[in-house]
């Protein structure tokens, strides 16, 4: 079956063992996928989605029925009061920035309770030296953070103390791990932070929900989160949305974000959909299934590389709260070989050879494997890593498990060809 890809017996044998160890996790993922798919289908039927909702608008986009309905539909799917879901959010960082600027005002303080956020949001907050670009800091918005505890979990006593001693407008949670090895937050942990925040302060809670959508049967909106946002070329776009993002949560905060998205006084009332609505609807409908496939790819990666003696997080049978799988590859050459091998299993640009480069928004060279139908879509099989300690690779995505499985095997095979699995 794998003859054309020339995979060695060593990798084939390890893959068979990995599949045996993944059985229980796969069964749990199937249960979650089924519940989420039924939830999304129920919402589609409740709102009576029809062909007419896919019609595109131009110019100002006034009265776009499809645009207005998908906002309500998406909110229903993620347990929120309201949402805005648009193709013209350029990326996850842009979407998060719109949400931050939508709610925060000069003199306000933003408190990150999951330590330092992901690299690309640093310039938005003003943690870098990019003065004058219009960061939150430039607009007089203050920033504080509470570090995670020794287990990599939110430090609830420290959060409570900080909230009581300071005037905080927004508690900010990064659900996924970013380029770190700390655990991803579950919705249950997010709920603890939401309840603590609302109990001891007047602050609102915002969640960077990237990579987390549909990995559990509930979302941050179901546990009272005030605002959360994510990218449509990750989980929520189902591998079909060509670009875009969403902001969801309490109606009052979503409304404020809409004025930042366009302009005060207009908000969500304008914005041509340019024939992108079908992709957004179809992507949302496909999202639960595609996320399930990506979760299986992550479990298989953990099981396979454990066979070769590498550390992984999450572990094979650990409960998952995002689609990311980290593998502790230990050396720079292992990182490069992994990404170059994974690229060979991509349906697009399989002949390309990823190389480390100075990627905008990052403080060290990054290598990235991403042979995708939609450029940069990390719901499609991809892997990336900064070339720095601890030399871990972060892999995610897979539109279908079977092709993702092959790509992951090719990552291992490339390491094997270079003698990087010898002795393991």
Q: What attributes does this structure have?
A:
single chain; 424 residues; alpha/beta; 5-stranded antiparallel sheet; 12 strands; 38% helix
Structure in words:
This protein has 424 residues and is of the alpha/beta class. It has 11 helices and 12 strands. The strands form 2 sheets. Strands 1-7-6-5-4-2-3 form a 7-stranded mixed sheet, sandwiched between helices. The chain has a 5-stranded antiparallel sheet with strand order 8-9-12-11-10, covered by helices on one side. Helix 5 links the parallel strand 2 and strand 3 (142-145). It starts with 8 loop residues before the first helix and ends in a 7-residue tail after the last helix.
What value does the average pLDDT take? Answer: 96
Helix proportion of residues, in percent?
A: 25-40%
Structural class category: alpha/beta
* Rough outline: globular
Along the chain, the helix and strand elements come as HHHEHEHEHEHEEEHHEEHEEEH
Terminal Cα separation, in Å?
25 Å
- Beta-strand portion reads 5-15%
Low-confidence stretches are: none
Number of helical regions: 11
Main beta sheet strand tally, sense and closure? 7 strands, mixed
> What is the number of E strands?
12
Radius of gyration, in Å, reads: 21 Å
The spatial strand order of the largest sheet comes to 1-7-6-5-4-2-3
């Amino acid at each position: 079956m794998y003859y054309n890809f020339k995979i060695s017996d060593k990798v084939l044998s390890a893959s068979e063992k990995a599949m045996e160890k993944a059985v229980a996790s796969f069964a749990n993922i199937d249960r979650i996928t089924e519940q989420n798919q039924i939830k999304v289908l129920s919402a589609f039927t409740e709102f009576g989605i029809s062909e007419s909702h896919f019609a595109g608008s131009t110019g100002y986009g006034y009265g776009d029925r499809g645009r207005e309905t998908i906002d309500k539909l998406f909110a229903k799917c993620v347990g929120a009061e309201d949402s805005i879901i648009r193709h013209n959010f350029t990326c996850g960082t842009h979407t998060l920035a719109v949400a931050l600027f939508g709610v925060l005002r000069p003199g306000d303080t933003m408190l990150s309770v999951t330590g330092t956020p992901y690299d690309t949001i640093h310039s938005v907050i003003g943690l870098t030296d990019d003065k004058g670009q219009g960061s939150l800091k430039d607009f007089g918005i203050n920033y504080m953070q509470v570090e995670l505890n020794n287990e990599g979990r939110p430090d609830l006593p420290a959060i409570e103390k900080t909230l009581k001693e300071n005037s905080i407008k927004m508690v900010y949670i990064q659900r996924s791990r970013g380029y770190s090895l700390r655990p991803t937050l579950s919705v249950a942990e997010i709920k603890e932070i939401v309840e603590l925040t609302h109990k001891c302060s007047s602050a609102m809670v915002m969640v960077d929900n990237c990579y987390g959508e549909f990995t559990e049967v509930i979302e941050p909106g179901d546990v009272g989160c005030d605002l959360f946002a994510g990218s449509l070329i990750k989980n929520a776009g189902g591998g079909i949305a060509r670009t875009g993002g969403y902001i969801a949560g309490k109606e009052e905060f979503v409304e404020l974000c809409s004025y930042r998205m366009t302009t005060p006084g207009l908000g969500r009332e304008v914005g041509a959909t340019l024939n992108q609505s079908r992709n957004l609807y179809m992507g949302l409908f496909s999202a639960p299934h595609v996320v399930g496939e990506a979760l299986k790819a992550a479990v298989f990666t953990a099981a396979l590389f454990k066979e070769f003696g590498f550390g992984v997080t999450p572990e094979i049978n650990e409960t998952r709260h995002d689609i990311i799988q980290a593998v502790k590859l230990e050396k720079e050459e292992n990182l490069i070989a992994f990404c170059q091998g994974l690229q060979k299993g991509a349906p697009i640009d399989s002949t390309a050879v990823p190389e480390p480069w100075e990627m905008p928004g990052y403080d060290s060279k990054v290598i990235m494997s991403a042979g995708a139908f939609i450029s940069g879509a990390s719901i499609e099989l991809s892997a990336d890593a900064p070339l720095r300690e601890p030399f871990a690779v972060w892999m995610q995505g897979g539109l279908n498990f079977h092709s993702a499985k092959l790509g992951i095997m090719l990552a291992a095979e490339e390491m094997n060809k270079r003698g990087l699995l010898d002795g393991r």
